[in-house]
Write a structure and sequence with these properties.
Elements (H helix, E strand, L loop, with lengths): L5 H13 L10 H18 L10 E3 H4 L12 E3 L4 E4 L2 E5 L5 E6 L15 E7 L3 E7 L10 E3 L1 E4 L17 H14 L5 H20 L20
Antiparallel strand pairs: 1-9, 2-7, 3-9, 4-5, 4-8, 6-7
Length: 230
């Protein structure tokens, strides 16, 4: 599925809603309302059925908005601005991409059970003020200037301009969800059928997301006693 900008998504929505090719401009109220409906669809997708969407995995180095390098003696580092959940460990890598140091990630409430000189890390904060990576012990001088990297699960990108693109594999879910919510707001009897279309689209997306690929068929992994990414 080709990625779509919000302007393209809004045009597809408007064609279904009004059956009209004369799409309102970005200065029109309908365009603003449409963007709000689109962002509601994105957040619905993010929280859907406890699904971890493949499109929302990222790394600290690839994203680039979090602290990138180690400073001698510094224990705290900003996480990426779109950070949602941590993976299993943080690694410190050299210029060749080789891992020099590895910190397992623990929950903040588990810090009290860790040794003062043990190698571990944890994230504190929230989605409003942002998250902070905490390393223990404080990095020594031999790690100074090396790269900080880790896999994390991110929050999806909301639309703020017409050229913004969603990470979603099938953006037509947004189109159908926008239509359903517009019909609900206007008490249109076609609300139920539009909602059914949107739910069918997201279920197919979920099925594809969870079905592996041609080289890795789906399997159930026993992760009892472990956390995500460990």
């Amino acid at each position: 599925m080709t990625k779509m900008t919000f302007t393209q998504i809004f045009a597809a929505f408007y064609a279904l809603f009004r059956a009209d090719s004369d799409v309102p401009a970005s200065t029109d109220d309908e365009y603003t309302v449409g963007m709000n409906l689109a962002n509601e669809a994105i957040n619905y997708w993010k929280a859907y059925d406890n699904t971890y969407w493949k499109e929302l995995y990222d790394t600290n180095q690839l994203d680039g908005t979090g602290a990138q390098t180690i400073v001698t003696g510094q224990k705290t580092y900003t996480a990426p601005t779109n950070f949602s959940e941590a993976g299993g460990f943080v690694k410190i890598v050299n210029s060749d991409g080789n891992t020099v140091q590895r910190y397992p990630i623990v929950e903040p409430n588990e810090v009290q059970f860790q040794g003062d000189n043990s190698d571990y890390c944890y994230f504190t904060g929230d989605s409003i003020s942002g998250y902070t990576l905490n390393l223990n012990p404080a990095p020594s001088s031999n790690l100074n200037g090396l790269d900080i990297d880790y896999v994390y699960y991110k929050n999806p990108t909301n639309f703020t301009t017409g050229t913004d693109v969603t990470e979603m594999a099938n953006p037509y879910f947004i189109v159908h969800r926008m239509l359903a919510m517009q019909f609900r707001a206007s008490r249109n009897p076609y609300y139920a059928s539009a909602l059914k279309d949107s739910e069918n689209t997201i279920r197919v997306m979920q099925l594809t997301n969870n079905s592996g690929n041609w080289a890795n068929t789906p399997s159930m992994t026993d992760n009892s006693g472990s956390s995500w990414g460990s």
